[in-house]
Amino acid sequence: MRRTAPIAIALILSAAVPATASAAVRHVFRGAGFGHGIGMSQYGAYGYALKGSKYPGILAHYYKGTELSTAPSEPVRVLLQPVDPYIRVRGATSVGGRKINPSAMYLAKRGGAGIVVTNSRGRRVANFAASSIKFRGADPMRLMGPALNGVTSGLYRGSIEVRLDGGGVTSINELDMDSYIRGVVAGEMPSSWPLEALKVQAVAARTYALATAKTSGAFDQYPDTRSQVYRGVTGESVRSDAAVADTAREIVTYGGVPAVTYYFSTSGGQTENVEFSFVGSLSKPWLVSVPDPYDNLSPYHRWNVRFTAARLDRALGAPGAFKRLKVVERGESPRVVRAKVVGTQGTRNVTGPQVRSALGLRDTWFTDYRVATSSVRSRSARPASWGPRPPAARVLAGSFQPAPEILPLPGPCGTDGPAGPVSTSRTRGITGPPP
Hints:
By secondary structure, the protein is an alpha+beta fold. It has three domains: 130 residues, no CATH class; 125 residues, no CATH class; 102 residues, no CATH class. The chain is 17% helix and 34% strand. The protein has eight helices and 22 strands. Strands 4, 5, 6, 7, 8, 9, 10, 11, 12 and 13 form a ten-stranded antiparallel sheet that branches. A four-stranded antiparallel sheet has the order 17-1-21-22. A three-stranded antiparallel sheet has the order 3-14-15. Helix 1 packs antiparallel against helix 4, helix 2 crosses helix 4 and helix 3 crosses helix 5. The radius of gyration is 28 Å and the shape is globular. It starts with 23 loop residues before the first strand and ends in a 34-residue tail after the last strand. The N terminus and C terminus are likely disordered.
């Protein structure tokens, strides 16, 4: 059941403090989670693994109604360097079927209607009348220069294809699926985490790659957050490689089809239905809100940020001067689905993701508090004959809207910090980890 926004209630913080001439107004956003909130929470999986859960049960918890299946044997094509003047490769034993020296570096660039390959001294090695060629050889090969994944002169398994593209050439790494996943897991989850959590990440990443592969164009995946963070051999580790090997070719399917296995950092205690986070998208039966009772180890389980009304006015574009943000619809978690930006000259409709993007919030699970306060100095009753008086204390007076008691967050978690237990009122009777 979706929740509507609570009614704003003024809370007098200190009636005994004398009124002041002016008050400072700040907006405090209390929030939970980090990411879009859909699918698998990585910190939640981490918590489940620490409790002794195994990866099949963890996956079944986050992706409802799915089962483990075997992935088809298909290569993955990852874009690394788009439209460069030239591509440089070291460690290849052949290019375009012609043998070359693996200890030397070779340069490929556009040449007439095809691709010219030279050595590092500029001597021509081959001239191919083709729109693409492949460097093959040592496993791995080194692609010189910076790539889209932020890795400079990184090592990559499989082959490196050079294609004519625009006025230059583009490099694409083609490799088998599990070699690709070896370069993804440690880039998306710390390799120091429990092995069962890394196995969850490996299966989710492998499934996501299959389910979201581009159906047209020269490549399937980006090497960054547009797809998944892929760092090649640089991103591999002994423990993450073990997780990939232990789950070799395993994927999550729903009705026999690879499921889109979204994942993210921190749920705040509950994940969200896909249609409430990606507003306007179709619902998916495996991407529904589930309790996440062990997510509280994350440093982003709870957070607070402060804004002035002027900052919110600039960011949210209120009609006239900004007054407040009124939430009108929440999802299951309850993340903000839709809200109204209220100004002195009217209102403007926005979505929760739009607010998150405009303000740089970690998540759409938040409540906006309008805090009007002023600081006054209290007088000391200490007699002057006792010596110098200590500095006068500052006391806050003002109002707090809405009242903290109706904050739509799942319990205070024992404390406001990330280490407290998740409130059982939102875990729907979940008392232990999945099998």
